[in-house]
Design a protein that fits this description.
By secondary structure, the protein is mainly alpha-helical. It has 45 helices and 8 strands. The N and C termini lie far apart (91 Å). 53% of the residues are buried.
Length: 923
């Protein structure tokens, strides 16, 4: 028996900010009105902890805790009227909070009485009713009408913070990664795992027990093992739990499970037996309500019965052609922990067969099981590494890390160790310090150079990506440097002769590497051809990795249309292959392309989806880039609080992981929001840190993009010398040709700094360049500045025309905060721009284009899900925009929204009511 680690008792609540906000709103409102909330979540997620937090936080009156025996007397049944009287009596003299934990454990009549009492609570009664139910079975119908606050598993960062809090940071990184992967976001299971380990195991001085989450630990976290029911029902529970082990998701084929149960034993009778409460049947798929209960059922079953269930599933699968799940179940049906070379080799062979239908997740499971059954250390390390690679492709880096730790425990040849370092480096590149990723990827390139040169080139390019993300230009150039010439050997001439026949993927990597280095050295003449080849391959390729390289190369060359096309194809290819780890990157390139083109609403849509997929895939670094894009998109709209939220979140990750590019973009967004809201001094201070020479200058490939904003802010703030000082560098950037907007922006900057006799011509030249480059937002900014300049020169007729053009451009691209500036300037000239140029009334002009589309669909009666399907976005994106629509328009219901939109769009001649000074009548 091992010693236990003592877990700190006063562990604070980690995460749960959304849930605590909902509880806080209930508590804060009780002095004036009552409320009800139903807290739901699977066992172990912290429902009881949150109820205790709410009880401790409530200071306005008494707290009453009700249990199943809440009837009028000992043993008396619970009555709704008596419960209601109890609740009202508690609030006679002061507001009261009533907590009912584990209400699902009440018997059916008592639940009915509790549900009725909750529904009959009057809002003016100053009673807050807070219930919690576990979702390891369906929520009782008596509670369906209560507003729900749902608990989900903790995100990896929150779980890591809980682990550090519970152990005082004593766990070594390797142990930490295995604990986090095993707990899968369940806080009770994580704490139970920590409690199981001895201090020596926690610090890595002794090997961890296997399995890490044993039957007793799982049962403790789940609150026990499901009991009762017939033997047939228990067999069905066990069979579904066993089948999930070789499934791509939480559900399994109901026909397969029932066929396996039939093979385990005869049915109890002629009629169908009710489905166990822990299971849910959806169409032809069966799943557990709670993943933790599923694991507990499988772990706590008798070993011989568990093996029998796997054997029955393998037999049922044998004739169906699903070879990999069948082999997995046969391997689990083996008795004892001894190596089994033949099953291991068969599993690994089928997992490596690209023609076999299987997801990355299932292949990872097969490789890991094959490694467990393998005796040879080097082969075992190779299979654990392959499993980690598949987990990474499946978007589960938290499960890849423990597999890499397992691979490291065995001696292996350089090629296997290089492959492991490549996977480790890519994992850290998506979710870890990019400096560590850079070193791992360099080591991978070195280890792979001899036996796998193509993989070595891929590792080197990824190392350059890590240095790029870190803003380390010397490291980036060094990584991209040509390989030193090798010592002559007889085969050298043959390799040179066959260079033309190298695989397309290898030549694409080489071209990208050569072109990227030339670009960073300022040699556009040498960068264009190789990067152009990478872009061209993206027009015909179908591999997501190749398409992502094409999109990245197009962005380097400033070809935003090619970047959008390659990014869209990469996104489709990644989704088709189930490569969840590549989806956030494809959306990142799409968002950057739209941003570079000045299409902020489209950039925002891609970034919102990219943020969600990055967080689901455990890629905090990619999520930080998406947050930076969201901040930049929001900086042109009237949403300063959205900018601040995304900037803060992006910088939190960027500073911890060394993401100079994401940090520079986020800081630029904050400054641009200041500039748009008429705060040039604040904007100049922020931007000066990014663009002026010095150790704090922003990312080498990004700071120049912020120069036009700095020049504008600096001129308005009276810092003309600072503004002039950065234009030399920016002129070189504009001449470089990688940014289609730069030439027009340069002319605008010169106009801002020019004397009156020269500024007029420079503004006109800038507008002409905008016409060549396209992009509504930047052209509108130039028109706005020109219009302001004309107004100060007392040329009102010309100023109205330029300002009207600016207003139309800003409204077309959803730049609300800048449109407000244009309106203010027009009002100063005596114009009254109450409506947009396309006739939309002012009230709806508060909405971004995406918000307006969603508002119109909702006004027509569409549900959030229907809107999401129509606009090809997630329901979460629709929910987010709809909340902002309600706030912007000051409405509280969908009916009120429909009325506002209907009245606005039925107003005759709405766009033709401008006065004589209107921009539409500037002739």
């Amino acid at each position: 028996m091992t010693a236990e680690t003592t877990v700190r008792t006063a562990v604070r609540i980690h995460g749960r900010s959304t849930q605590r906000k909902a509880l806080r709103e209930l508590l804060d409102g009780l002095p004036t009105h009552g409320g009800r909330l139903l807290l739901t979540g699977e066992p172990g997620l912290g429902r009881t902890t949150l109820l205790r937090w709410a009880a401790r936080s409530f200071r306005a009156g008494p707290v009453l805790r009700l249990g199943p025996g809440a009837g009028p007397g000992p043993g008396a049944p619970v009555d709704a009227g008596h419960l209601l009287a109890t609740l009202r009596a508690a609030a006679d003299e002061a507001p009261a909070l009533v907590c009912v934990d584990d209400a699902h454990l009440w018997d059916a009549p008592s639940r009915t009485a509790l549900g009725r009492a909750a529904e009959r609570l009057h809002p003016a009664g100053r009673v807050g009713l807070l219930l919690s139910v576990a979702t390891d079975r369906a929520v009782a119908p008596e509670f369906h009408r209560l507003p729900v606050v749902r608990l989900d598993p903790l995100s990896p960062p929150r779980a890591a913070a809980l682990l550090d809090d519970a152990t005082d940071g004593a766990a070594t990184p390797a142990v930490r990664e295995q604990l986090l992967a095993e707990a899968d976001g369940n806080p009770a299971l994580l704490v139970a795992l920590v409690r199981r380990l001895s201090p020596a195991e926690l610090r890595g001085h002794r090997p961890l027990p296997a399995p890490l989450a044993d039957a007793a630990t799982l049962a403790e976290a789940a609150g026990g093992t499901p009991t009762g029911g017939s033997p047939h029902a228990r067999d069905l529970l066990l069979t579904v739990a066993a089948a999930v082990q070789a499934s791509d998701g939480p559900d399994v084929d109901a026909g397969l499970a029932r066929e396996a149960v039939r093979r385990l034993g005869p049915a109890p009778g002629p009629g169908p037996e009710p489905l166990p409460a822990q299971l849910l049947l959806a169409g032809d798929r069966l799943r557990f309500h709670s993943p933790l209960v599923c694991r507990t059922v499988h772990a706590t079953a008798a070993p011989d019965r568990r093996r029998a269930a796997h054997r029955a599933l393998a037999d049922a699968l044998e004739s169906g052609g699903r070879r990999l799940p069948e082999l997995l179940h046969r391997s689990w049906a083996l008795g004892g922990p001894a190596p089994a070379p033949s099953p291991a080799d068969r599993l690994a062979a089928v997992a490596a067969d690209g023609t076999a239908p299987a997801s990355h997740r299932l292949r990872a499971t097969a490789y890991a099981r094959a490694a467990e059954l393998t005796a040879d250390g080097a082969t075992r390390a190779e299979r654990y590494t392959a499993a980690a690679e598949q987990e990474l492709l499946a978007g589960r880096p938290e499960r890849a890390r423990p597999l890499l730790v397992a691979a490291r425990g065995h001696a292996a040849p350089a090629a296997v160790r290089g492959r492991a370092e490549l996977v480790r480096g890519l994992t850290e590149l998506g979710d870890g310090p990019v400096g560590d990723a850079h070193q791992s990827l360099l080591l991978a390139a070195s280890l792979l150079a001899k036996d796998a040169p193509a993989d070595a080139a891929t590792a080197a390019l990824a190392a350059a990506d890590a240095a790029w993300a870190a803003g380390d230009l010397p490291a980036c150039l060094a990584t991209l440097a040509p390989e030193p010439p090798r010592r002559a050997d007889p085969a050298a001439h043959g390799r040179a002769a066959h260079r033309c026949s190298e695989p397309p993927a290898a030549s694409a990597v080489r071209d990208h590497r050569v072109g990227m280095r030339a670009l960073l050295q300022g040699r556009l003449d040498r960068a264009g051809a190789p990067l152009g080849q990478v872009v061209a391959r993206g027009r015909t390729g179908d591999r997501p990795e190749e398409l992502l390289r094409s999109a990245a190369a197009a962005l380097l060359l400033g070809d935003v249309d090619a970047a959008r096309g390659a990014g869209a194809r990469a996104l489709a290819a990644a989704r088709q292959l189930g490569a969840d780890t590549l989806v956030p990157r494809a959306l990142e390139y799409l968002a950057y392309a739209e941003l570079r083109a000045g299409r902020h609403p489209q950039a925002r849509t891609h970034a919102e989806e990219g943020l969600n997929t990055a967080l689901r895939a455990g890629q905090r670094n990619t999520a930080a880039h998406h947050r930076a894009v969201l901040a930049l998109a929001a900086s042109v709209e009237e949403e300063p609080e959205v900018v601040a939220r995304h900037v803060t979140a992006a910088l939190d990750t960027a500073r911890g992981h060394g993401l100079a590019q994401a940090a520079t973009l986020a800081q630029w967004a904050a400054a641009r929001a200041d500039l748009g809201r008429g705060r040039p001094y604040d904007a100049a201070d922020r931007l000066g840190l990014l663009v002026l020479p010095g150790p704090g200058r922003g990312h080498f490939a990004v700071w120049r993009l912020a120069v036009p904003c700095f020049v504008e802010a600096a001129v308005l703030a009276g810092r003309h010398d600072d503004a002039s000082g950065v234009l030399t560098d920016f002129a070189g950037w504009a001449a470089f040709g990688a940014d289609p907007q730069a030439a027009a922006q340069l002319a605008r900057c010169h106009a801002l700094l020019a004397p009156p006799d020269a500024a007029d011509d420079l503004y006109r030249r800038a507008l002409a360049r905008h016409d060549e480059a396209g992009g509504d937002f930047e052209r509108a900014r130039t028109a706005l500045l020109y219009g302001k300049w004309l107004r100060r020169r007392r040329r009102p007729r010309e100023a109205r025309g330029r300002l009207g053009t600016a207003l139309a451009g800003f409204e077309r691209c959803g730049a609300g905060v800048w449109a407000a500036q244009a309106r203010d300037e027009l009002r100063a000239l005596g114009a009254t721009p109450h409506h947009t140029r396309d006739g939309t009334p002012t009230r709806l002009t508060r909405l971004t284009p995406q918000q307006l589309r969603i508002a119109r669909h909702v006004a027509e009666g569409a549900t959030n899900r229907e809107v999401a399907l129509t606009l090809a976005v997630s329901t979460r994106t629709v929910d987010y925009h709809l909340r902002n629509v309600f706030a912007a328009l000051g409405v509280r219901s969908r009916l009120e929204l429909a009325r506002v939109v209907g009245q606005a769009e039925q107003t005759p001649g709405a766009g033709r009511r401008d006065g004589p000074g209107s921009p539409d009548r500037r002739k």
